[in-house]
Design a protein that fits this description.
CATH architecture of the domain at 14-103: 2-Layer Sandwich
CATH class of the domain at 14-103: Alpha Beta
Bound molecules: iron/sulfur cluster
CATH topology of the domain at 14-103: Alpha-Beta Plaits
Radius of gyration: 14 Å
Structural class: alpha+beta
Helix content: 10-25%
Length: about 130
Amino acid sequence: MCAGHSLPNVRRYSSLAMTYIVTDACVKCKYMDCVEVCPVDCFYEGENFLVIAPDECIDCGVCEPECPVDAIVPDTEDEPDGKWLQVNAEYAKVWPNITVKGTAPADAAQFERETGKFEKYFSTKPGKGS
Ligand code: SF4
Ligand code: SF4
C-alpha cells in the first residue's frame, strides 16, 4: 500500500519535480512574453494572471529571462509555505492553456512596481486561452 496517498496537499506539492512558478509581479501585468518560448506549452491563463503547470514544466528556465517584471522564478525561490507553487498548481488545472502572446492590459505599466497585488487584485476567473 502506498502511504503517500494520505499525505496532506503541501507535502504532495513539495514532492513534485522541480518547476518554475509565476509570482505576484504578474498580477495585472500579463505581458505574456513568457508563453511563446515554453517548449512544452505549460502556461495557463487567468483573467489577470498566468500560471505554470508544475507537473508539465520541464524546468528548462527559458521563460524566466523573458518576463519583463521578473515574475517567473524557480520553485526553490517560493515563499516558505509554498504559496506560489500551490497557486500555480491549483489554477493550471482549471484555466485554459495559452501559447500565443496576446495584448497586455492598457494599464499594465502602472501596476509594475506595486507589491502585494495577489491579495488586492487576483481574479480566479479564467482567461480566454489561445
Ligand atoms: S511575461 Fe511575466 S508578467 Fe507577463 S504573463 Fe508571463 S509571467 Fe506574467
Ligand atoms: S521553465 Fe521551461 S518548461 Fe517550465 S514553464 Fe518555463 S519555459 Fe516552460
